[in-house]
Design goal:
about 280 residues; alpha/beta
């Protein structure tokens, strides 16, 4: 692992879609922003599949604007939406090399992404491409037009509850209850998703309120209901770290074995205040 400058940590989130970063890692993102660290959010796909009325062209344009607004609300350096088509992503050589170039240019200390076992094929494709890129960022003749790194960054998988073929190993768990309102504020920027397509797709479009204030309250309730099972899923680790009744709302992360290793000292900087002994 590269020597970590504890004054400033650089974090790159590679999610498959606009809104994946904040949904899966919004609490940690907020912690890094508050600590004065540099965060960049990337949606690998253009987000152009997730709607029931808008066509792809209109949806892509809307989701780019919404992602940029979500980034502004949290204060990140950039929220970028790439051009790979939503719903059609493959862990191709083109995707791998694009990720290699991005990691080299941004030079992150920590990369967050999806696991390779996930319900969504786009999530799996991003996770596989990041895994394949992890070591290759140090190889000079791979993507030779972008200077290689001497050390690859730490890569961590964002929280999911899938169990087959294996569960996420909760190397890190953070209590995100203090960041809930900011996560919801970021999510609410993705209006065409959280107030339109996802309610339609999940069969509860009739429950979405009309006013902005009511929508925010509704979105917060929905988000908390969705993430509360994390505590039960990782109950042993939550009890180990927090004791007592444990933390109610959490994010869990698994450190990838395919990228740079991590030390107890660097853990508290990469995951902002986390201590394995907490």
């Amino acid at each position: 692992m590269q020597k970590l400058d504890t004054a400033t940590v650089r974090v790159l989130v590679l999610g498959a879609h606009p809104d994946d970063a904040e949904y899966h890692a919004g609490g940690l993102i907020a912690r890094h922003v508050d600590a004065g660290n540099v965060v960049k959010l990337v949606s690998v796909t253009d987000g152009g599949a997730g709607h029931h009325r808008l066509d792809r062209q209109a949806l892509v344009a809307k989701r780019r604007l919404e992602a940029a607004e979500a980034g502004r609300r949290i204060g990140v350096e950039a929220y970028v939406t790439w051009d790979f088509p939503d719903g059609r992503l493959q862990p191709s050589l083109e995707l791998r090399e694009t990720i290699i170039a991005e990691i080299r240019r941004f030079r992150p200390d920590l990369v967050l992404t999806h696991r390779t076992c996930d319900y969504h094929p786009d999530h799996r494709a991003v996770g596989q491409a990041v895994q394949d890129a992890s070591y290759m960022v140090t190889v000079p003749l791979v993507v030779p037009d972008v200077p290689h790194l001497k050390h690859d960054p730490v890569v961590a998988y964002m929280c999911d509850l899938f169990t087959k073929p294996c569960r996420l190993q909760a190397d890190v768990i953070i209590d995100i209850e203090p960041q809930i309102d900011r996560i919801v504020e970021m999510l609410s920027a993705h209006e065409c998703q959280v107030f339109d397509f996802l309610p339609y797709n999940h069969g509860h479009a009739d429950q979405v309120p009309e006013t902005v204030e009511d929508r925010l309250s509704w979105l917060k309730r929905w988000y908390l209901e969705v993430i509360e099972p994390r505590r039960t899923h990782f109950s042993d680790r939550v009890q180990e770290l927090f004791g007592g009744e444990g933390a109610r709302y959490i994010e869990a992360y698994e450190v990838s074995e395919y990228a740079a290793g991590i030390t107890p000292d660097s853990m508290s900087h990469l995951f902002v205040g986390f201590r394995a002994s907490d």
